[in-house]
TrEMBL record:
Compositionally biased intervals (Low complexity): 43-55
Compositional bias (Basic and acidic residues): 32-41, 63-93, 117-137, 147-160, 174-202
Species for this entry: Kribbella sancticallisti
Basic residues: bias regions: 220-233
Domain of life: Bacteria
Region (Disordered): 1-93, 117-242
Protein name: Colicin import membrane protein
Amino acid sequence: MADTDDEQTAELGPDDRAKGEDEGAPGAEAAGEDRRAKEWEAGADQDGAALAAGLTEDEEEAAERVERKQQRLREEIEQDAREERELADSRYRHDVNQANADIAKAMRLAEIAEGNRNDLRREAAGERRLARNDTAHAAHLRAGAAGRDDPQAEADRSAADRAQASANYQDRIANYDDSKADWYDAESRAQRREAAQVRRPEQPPAAEAVRTPPKEAPRARKNLKQQRRRKTKELRDFGLGE
């Protein structure tokens, strides 16, 4: 019998002896069951959904494939949205630059027209002054030669005719310059109206905010499967599983 006891003792490993000692302690069995129950409850909070669903490994793998496909689809949709936004932004910048260029061109042409108009107005004003002076000089010469038949009087009357012709010429030039100034004035107004009618494009809608990442990383399904198998074994230990 002693040999038999020694053989039985030798067959027990360190883990088995520790387990036996723990089980032999007062209340050890109840404490072990409580510990295993707490471990089970802690794991059940995390993968209770998978256990409640009662999915098999094939069903879980199929669900993973569907989830990966949906994730790829979401990423493709987001990529398409980003590309569409970039294209809209590029078009907006192009349209804004084109509108600014059109406005700048119209304003530059308006300023040029206004400058030409002002120059022609000044020239016409000077030509009219000359015409008035020549007209006055011609009137003075005629007045001095009136009632006289001497050669000097004839010379004065000839000079008065030339002065009047010069005055008439200056008036014609002034009228021509005034008409050109009127054309440039109309051109300036038209260019300013065109610049005012240019419409800058509206700012495209703001891009969607970046999605806030989850506070905790998602748990991998393969871990859930491992835990599911472990919990199933523990249920059997409790006498609840099959």
